[in-house]
Amino acid sequence: MNEVNPPDHGRMRASDADRDSVAHRLREALAEGRLDPDEHSERLDAVYRAKTIGELVPLTEDLPAENGSDALAAPADFRSPRPVYGGGRIVDREPTSRVAVVVMGGADRSGSWVVPGTFVAFAVMGGVELDLREARFTQRETTIWVCTVMGGVGITVPDDLQVRVHGLPLMGGFGVSENTPSVVDPDAPIVHIRGIAVMGGVGVEYKPRKHQGEIEE
């Protein structure tokens, strides 16, 4: 009688959420001084080249986990976060970031980051990308204040958030894409986008979440 061998979790294909989770931990390690900029850059490149869970695990084996416990010991312990929707995005946790400021450079916030009640994005001759598709929120209503001068701020949102844009463009643009979905969850977070764009642009675009894209394909 043939026995079915257990799956080799190290060979399991990595998802975008897996890669985002590891990239987030590496950013924290850089901020904590556990990695120098060269080490962080090298590991981050490896994260986005990784095809399997087994390739991701070694990148954080020598780092403590976010809760201070030991790092993941085996690929079998690695799990992608389950998608949350609408009111499930509101959490009682500390924000992971409160501001993004760039001057002739770039910054991004993505993955399962925790957005505070007020977030500030400031870009001068540079760009800021905010991806809210997997974000959590500390409050039901969030205000993102945006100021860009000869730069750009792009905000990507999913179909289960209510977004309201109140910006002022001066020789620039401030708007939302036309494919605005109708949010049905009465408890869905509300995101207000306020600010000014001077000779630059602020764009809000609805896109499917990564797992939705996989299903649609």
From TrEMBL:
Positions of the DUF1707 domain: 12-64
Pfam families attached to this UniProt entry: DUF1707 (PF08044), LiaF-like_C (PF09922)
InterPro entries reported in the protein's UniProt record: DUF1707_SHOCT-like, LiaF-like_C
Location of region: Disordered: 1-23
Cell wall-active antibiotics response LiaF-like C-terminal domain residues: 123-177
PANTHER family: DUF1707 DOMAIN-CONTAINING PROTEIN (PTHR40763:SF4), MEMBRANE PROTEIN-RELATED (PTHR40763)
Protein's recorded name: Cell wall-active antibiotics response LiaF-like C-terminal domain-containing protein
Organism annotation: Nocardiopsis sinuspersici
